Fold these 3 entries.
Entry 1:
Amino acid sequence: MSNMEMPLVVFSVLSQTAIGLVIINTNRQWTAKPHLAHLQEGSRQWGIVLAFLVTGMIASFFHLGHPLQAYTTLKHLSNAWLSWELLGIAVFLGLALLGLLTEKRNKSGMISFATALVGLLTLLFMGMTYSPPGYPAINNALPLVFFLLTALLLGASCSAWFAPPEKRAWLLRILSVTLIVGLVVYLIVPCVWLSGGTVMKQTAWAWILSPLYWGRIGIGLVLPLILLWRLQDIPAWLPIIILLGELMGRAGFFRDTVHAAGNIGGLY
Amino acid sequence: MACKNQYHQPEKVIWRQVYPIDEQIYPFTERAFYSLACNHCENPTCLNVCPVKAYYKREDGIVVHEQKKCIGCGNCIRSCPYGAPRYNPELKKAEKCSFCWQRIDAGLQPQCVQSCPVDALQIIDLATFNQPGAVQYPPGFPKQPKLNPSVRFMLPRLPKTIGEEDI
């Protein structure tokens, strides 16, 4: 997409982190396994969710040419996925605030469940928004897959902040599996693009030759996997490493994906 | 040049761009080009993805961008496979070829059509247009049937090969 779109990078990664945190927490609440009961839903967790989300939303305003008119983005719900994405984020923010304010009274987990559901829908809206026809390589379900992976990776690793070390086996399994799936997906996708049309091939080579792509794989996937294997635990600083990898990967997603118009006049 | 003279876009904001056709498609010493602007698609992706409804389609098919509504999110720029909407860094908004709809309404031709010295650009009525040899998706032009771009191309003439019979 020719430049890194840093405000979009920060917004998408941090908002997906917030969504992932709520999904993992809700999963724990609704499966209600006794050995997971220690993961107390609390104001601190909602606070962290809101901190990620609000930081991402502030970053997103820097992407707009006219941020003061951002409220008008809800006008085209009949067609535009971006309008749905922003509606989803707004509802998610409202529910997270409600979760924070009613945390002491409401222990049913319904708010958490509703927030996770809206978060999942928002991931779908984000996936549709970032799969435009202008980019043949990602004009499909891949953005949604990437965003789900981001939400699970950062959601599972950040959830470890709220669990004592002896009770992290469940999160460790989720995180390990997601890291392996992510590694496979990110290694295979450019290879699949190599068998596609010209613009897909150009995207594949742009990714393969990009330090951001390899940084994302090395720092965001391989290093955490090695650390998990060696430590058999999720240390408090691991989410920072995964976040760094995700930010690199998302910057590469925006910078290295080739636009169809870049090949006009050449064979497609 | 005609477009720039009419609208005075900032540097690098190009509504109509001339693209050289690759030698793999046109393998001759002389060169051929596509002169492309907004294709005013039947189902325009710019219109569909714009979250603030800054685009609308007129009865005659022209896709108009209302700049006063644009908030500069860039979604149309990312979405259009033909690269028609461009970012104006001075206004911090997107913009694109308007098909000179004000000139059309005044009974004039778009500035590019009027100014092309070799008559390479023409306005056609797709409902009645039936010229043999015209194609919608020539080599080197992204094929997007869902968008259905409202443009047709006459392929470049092949250069005359001089053989013994010409000597």
Note: Strands of chain B lie at 17-20, 33-36, 55-57, 63-65, 86-88, 93-95, 134-135, 153-154.
Entry 2:
Amino acid sequence: MMADLTLSRPLRRSSAHYRMRRRAFRALQVCALGLVLVYTLFPYYWAFVSSTKQGAALYRSVLLPALDFTYYRQLIDNPVFMGSLLNSAYVAVSTTCLSLIIGISAAYALGRIDFPQRRAVLMVILMISIFPQVVVLSGMFELINWLGLFNRPSALVLTYLLSTVPFTTWILTTFIREFPRELEEAAIVDGCSHLRILMKILLPLMGPSLASTGILAFILAWNEFLFALTFTLTDENRTVPVAIGLIAGTNRYEYPFGQIMAASVTVTLPLIAVVLIFQRRIVAGLTAGAVKG
Amino acid sequence: MSARLARRDHRAAWFFLLPVIAAMLVVAVWPLGRTFFFAFTDAYLDDPSVYTMVGLANFLEVFNDPSWWLAVRNTLVFTVISVSIETVLGLAIALLINDAIPGRGLARAAILVPWAIPVVVATKIWEWMLNDQFGVINKVLIELGLIDHGVAWTASGSLIMGVVIFIDVWMTTPFMVLLILAGLQMLSHEIFEAAAVDGIPAWKRFWSITLPMLRPAIGVAVLFRSLDALRMFDLSYVLAGSNEKVMTVSIYARDRLISFQELGVGSAASTWVFLLVALVAIILIGALRLDKAAGH
């Protein structure tokens, strides 16, 4: 009792001191968070602001957008740019669908069936996904020519499988393992084939996993640059990243930054919208492979 | 009976793997093999069917080319510095938004934006912001009185590597944050509470508990990011073309192959890239394993 009374005064003072320190720390954290937000978001905001300014206004650093959409109208009227948007969409969608089909089939074998070479197959797939694209460039060039696909968007669908298939296989394997085995036990006892188990039991449950994996594969394909630059030659067969990368002014002082920013905002806006809508799923997909792998 | 069932399972497994094996044979194994093959020939890109075998001559030509070693140096400098900065910054941001502070949900969504933007677009945006005359960065620095006239960030040779690293850090730190955050969320709270109750100061808790326990997550993130950085092509290419100051090994190999049409030499350069990446991968994986072994 006595001890409690004598202790209570210094204790109270120190807890007030402690609370103040905590509050200061919290304020510091919130400031840091604000800095992180500005750092990550300002460049994209600035691209949008710049894309709505004309002429001399572009060179004055006013923080608010002028909301003049001339550059966007020019883009819509530009058949080459719209064509490259279509090419990008075609290539990215086809690549995504193909790699999801190939990936889910492989993921079922790697995630659900016990066979001796399972780990080895997983390691080979992981190794393929990390080696540099430039290493296969010569052989791929010959293959594309041989198939008669040079300067066709379809060439890109084929070559993109190099990075998207290992990726979808790896992620879908980790997703498939998360489903409890009990789901299929009854079916196995009944003598169901593996194909039926995959199609009738697992696939209906895998919608969200397929969606997040698909979005990631889509982003990979949509953003690819090296193969797109190398295997297409003429403007009408370009994808958007290459089209933007190759926009150039008549000279150094007439660099069309306004147009480039408008094109940049146009091709990234759908991506950012999808990413923000499916935020949780995308993070799940991105981390699934790495953390448990 | 069960052996027969197991054999049936094995056959089913290979059946399901058939599409992925076929795809990888066509787009990975075959082109890789052809690249290795062309590296020993003097073929040119316009007609690859005309060639003679030249042994190791192409490998030696690349090996004796000072530009190649410049590209190797640039690639290694870029990889080491950018991955280091990304790891430290990624760890800091992950720790920040792992705490329950207001606005963390917003921050988690916001960090996905730089990650989703195509490299080409990110490069163009920063090129514009860093423009020597009209760029907003120079304007802000002049307003703050830090400089009195615009810095030519992307035009001057000595600054351009810094710019490349800076843009890469902006684009890929989110990936680090996400992986480290996932690692953080798997740690149990009890240890931290126990340590806090024992009066262990915050920095010591971070240094002796958080960091060692995060090591596997950070290790995997560093491995993936390093291998990705070693093959960097688009960022340097879009910002500076074939400028030797930031030319990476991927740009060097593609230049020989496509711009100079030298299929043989280009393939040899690609093979060197392959060996370089394989070497770094083995060293990194070895280092990670050793760390794990030491921890047990």
Note: Residues 2-59 of chain A form one domain.
Entry 3:
Amino acid sequence: MEVRHVYRWDLDKTYLRTDFDTLRGLLRAAREKASAKVNVAGSRALVRALQERPGARVAIISGSPRQMRRKLEEKFRLDGVEIDELVLKPNVENIVRGRFRAIRDQVGYKLPALLEGRSRVPSTASETLFGDDAEADAFVYSLYADIVEHRISAAQLSPILELCGVYDDDAERALRFASNLPMGPPIERIFIHLDGYSPPARFEAYGRRVVPIYNYFQAAILLLLDGHIGPGAIVRLAVELTQGYGYSLVSLANSFQDLVRRGLARAEDLGAIRLAFEAHAALIEKLRPASEVVQAFVDRLKMVSGMKPARVRDEAPIDYLAILGREGPPNTWRRRRRPKPRRRDLPF
Amino acid sequence: MPPPTIAFDAMGGEFAPTEIVRGAARLSLETDLDIILVGDAPRLAALLGGMRHNAERIALHHAPQWIRPEENAAEALDAKPDGSLLQAARLVASGQADALVTAGPTRALLLACDRTMRLLPGTEKAALAAVFPTELRRGEKDDPFSLVLDVGASLEASGADLVRFALMGASYARVISKNPVPRVALLSGGAELEWEHPAILAAHAHLERLAGIEYLGRIEGHLIPRGTADVVVTSGTVGAVVMRMLEGMAQTVLDLARYAYHERLSWRLGFTMVAGALQQLKRLTDWEEYGGAPLLGFDRVVIRADPRSGARAIANAGKVAAKAVAHQVPGAIADRLHLHAFGEGFERGRAAEG
């Protein structure tokens, strides 16, 4: 079947709960068995739901080393998830070639990989992207989306890559793919899983396409409204979150209220969720009777009735150079230190 | 058991709503409490959007009005039925939230609770408590503070009120500090009985024969910081004056130290050498560490944070509220008051028979 929609996922902190902030965490991630790897709450259920859509393709681009391929493929098998494309980072090659900057580099690795992946699908295929707030996913994905939509030319891309500190050969690859890429439909959404609870406002510079989410229930609501998943999928996800990951009905209702407050969903969208819960009442019974579940959502909505949702910003082009000027090269974003405490006049 | 839900009056306090939202955001990352921020929702949402927080644990409750400290509390509550404090109190009274935390004006808090909640049977007045850091530690938890009440909920207190305050304070100390037999004292102006306020004399006579607490008698103000008593009972006006004075003195000491630090190099060196010990002392006497103190006497948990509260104090006030909910403080107080009322009735009956 022809590919109609591509769901591109990052792996660590987006699909899998991985700790790569410490050396110990990195070593553990490399050594642990496939069965020991833990999913981000709801990621498996969501990928499975997305796969049910005819013409869907799931691609994963990860910064994990290529040596982990077999383990990761086994993990996907255990999850019952079929991955159409799994791209891993050539870390060993980078070390052998003395390209140490590339080990941390996100843009020089991910952007060419995304563009290469794009060249393998029909130009009519639309896309939804999933990343996290640990590194520079919002930046790389937005850049990729703008290239696909022909909002950024190769000439504009070049200084951006230079400021990102991308190696020349990686930049050349990215520019080559970008120049040859036929214009595609807009990238629908870029979901950023707030694994580190980054302030959502941090992503405002990337426009409305980038959607920071606290959990995959929020993503599922928007994907349900966009017609990517069916009502059964959102109910299954809600049940999985509550039964397997310690979520409560209140936290799900709060998640919906958060979307409404941020102007990402409307109060009227509760109708679609209500229909989903009522249509799958037997499934949701595992959590609570459907009417109670819906009531919890209604109660949370009532709390903000009369409140105008956040103002939707005019869609202005993303100023990547300004972002880089403000925040520095993306490979430094993860280890950015907290501001030093203010000096006090007294030592106590 | 699901985690307690804490309703914060996000518009109350000198640094509201920013510091209240920051405190709640912090709490959402540190604990599994459910939080409801009551206030000007668009403003709160904008603030939240700019800070690290867990949106799964925070709901906003829109309240388009709020009470300012300079307003007359009763008139403001009448004029602003959708005020943040009143709405937060309603959420708690209706069971949608388990506890209320506010750094708003005391009088308005008292009236809001009075209009929405019920006083516990056997209580005629609520008492606002405050914690004061002390030399001595107490209870299973080694708590380094004593409880002073009432510090401003009511202007006057009768002897019977003071006895009830003592019982409420002792119940609180028993469940929160895990102090099985709290030492209770009445705050007194001096040792001479003839100069004592009649209400204190009446309470003194009553408390002396009360079981279940260790009554120390009347103590003077200078013994509060020493920690002689775990629960210090007084009337609202006196309590408020005493607490403000003690806090002011602590601040003066710090200001003097700051002055001295800048005055001479040798003094600066001396301060630097004892900086560790002074830091420890500062931590111990830091009111923000204790977050807030309870308003006792209502059938719901109500915690009042200092109006100057910053994010840390607000987060800690939330934790105090959660602890009070978990230990069912109003229930424990109600049980103690019930027991007391029963004892009183029994005594009266026996006296009548005799």
Note: Residues 236-263 of chain B form the longest helix (28 residues).
